[in-house]
Design goal:
Layout (H helix, E strand, L loop, with lengths): L4 H12 L1 E6 L1 E5 L5 E5 L3 E8 L4 E5 L2 E6 L1 E5 L10 E4 L2 E12 L6 E12 L1
Antiparallel strand pairs: 1-4, 1-8, 2-3, 4-7, 5-6, 7-10, 8-9, 9-10
């Protein structure tokens, strides 16, 4: 038997999931080269949350921390880079979203989202 999205939602999310608030964010490039972020309507989503990830990348000048936390959501959940995620009154920005597939690469099992802390 191969893990699928039903296993993820019926087991991990139902047993260990918590409610978070997703605020969709649209980025617009202005004529002067600056960016404008516009927030949409919030929605409650169920996530598996890990605030203690230690993800670093090696740069010439040393280690650089690039992820403060991560969440995993079901494959049908809409979530995009730049969205705001609020978990337990801590606010993060989504910096990367990756679909995670089953071992054969045929079915999306969950979405893995890396988060950057923006407000405590």
């Amino acid at each position: 038997m191969v893990a699928d999205n039903d296993d993820f939602t019926a087991n991990l999310l139902s047993d260990s999931g918590i409610t978070a608030i997703r605020t969709p964010v649209t980025k617009t490039l202005l004529f002067d080269g600056s960016e404008e972020l516009t927030e949409g309507d919030t929605e409650n989503i169920t996530v598996f949350y890990n605030p203690s990830i230690n993800s670093h990348i090696q740069e010439r000048y040393g280690l650089l921390k690039n992820t403060d936390a991560y969440i995993m959501v079901g494959p049908s959940q809409t979530i995009n880079k730049e969205d705001k995620i609020t978990v337990e009154s801590t606010v993060y920005r989504v910096i990367n979203v990756r679909d995670r597939n089953n071992v054969f690469g045929t079915t999306s099992v969950y979405k893995f989202c890396e988060l950057h802390l923006i407000e405590v």
